[in-house]
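Preliminary data (for renewal application), magnesium ion complex.
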Amino acid sequence: MARMYYDADANLDLLAGKTIAIIGYGSQGHAHALNLKDSGMNVIVGLYPGSKSAIKAKESGLTVYAVEEAAKRADFIMVLLPDEVQKTVYKSEIEPHLTEGKVLAFAHGFNIHFAQVVPPSNIDVVMIAPKGPGHLVRRTYEQGEGVPALFAVFQDASGQARDRAMAYAKGIGGTRAGILETTFREETETDLFGEQVVLCGGLTALIKSGFETLVEAGYQPEVAYFECLHEVKLIVDLIVEGGLAKMRDSISNTAEYGDFTRGPRIVNDQTRAEMRKILYEIQTGQFAREFVLENQSGKPGFTAMRRREAEHPIEAVGKDLRAMFSWLKKA
Ligand code: NAD
Ligand code: MG
Ligand code: MG
Ligand code: MG
Ligand code: MG
Ligand code: MG
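Predicted structure:
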């Protein structure tokens, strides 16, 4: 098993007396900023003027500056902006303030690995990537626990980059749960693969196809929704709690037999070949190029796909049914 590092392996003193700037105050940003502050670190937040998040950050007792000012003041700069805006903000507001000895950090390797951000050689470049959404990073910290994280060093100018990254991971609560060392390449490629093939792309395609098949065959959309979407959570919760075995233990034998005999016909050799193709597109930078160009051209395809997906019948059925659930909950 890969080596995990815990609280005792990381030294928070390496960040004592340093100013840490959290750039962006969204899902990850608010969690990192508040956890570091509660860990006794000197935290400031960098946001664009007029950002709605600024009010929230100030209400939580944080000092907010324009991104440029925060980057100037900080010794450690964590970039928690949406991946597609990082390059522009970096170029105009962060890079001019990257003087020798500073640390530039990310929570996902995309912009460094695909060279959208090319930092100067006299600074440290690291990654601390919690393996969970920001609200969980915050909530677990408040409960005295943490979300496991990956960490990596891209560039070590100070000789302390790795220790500094581990210290940061400790400050956000990551070492309470355990942190695992990776590289920018491994994190970037596996993160993209996971979200495209399994978690987001694969799962939504599976749900929609199952729903469409039942509705086309004349079954009621509401029933199809329950069977193909709603129950996903019940199954996934069991898998996360105790692996595939726990889930299979708690479903009926009929369901379990159907799982073994029919599942491999849905994800078959052809599907696996497509998975390898998608991985290859990630590894060669083809996906990154497509995403970067899509954003540069004003997201025409992205916007059209968002609209089209929002109009899928499963969304209308879901909206009605979920309203019913919340009525049931209130009663
Ligand atoms: P987010 O969209 O939730 O938040 C982004 C923040 O940046 C917001 O506060 C927004 O107001 C601000 N912002 C947007 N444009 C800006 C601009 N031009 N100038 C200044 N501020 C701007 O983003 P997120 O989901 O927290 O993602 C941040 C990073 O963390 C990404 O690299 C992402 O890949 C990574 N990450 C996210 C998760 C997750 O679960 N959300 C998990 C691990 C890693
Ligand atoms: Mg989104
Ligand atoms: Mg991910
Ligand atoms: Mg991702
Ligand atoms: Mg059922
Ligand atoms: Mg069983």
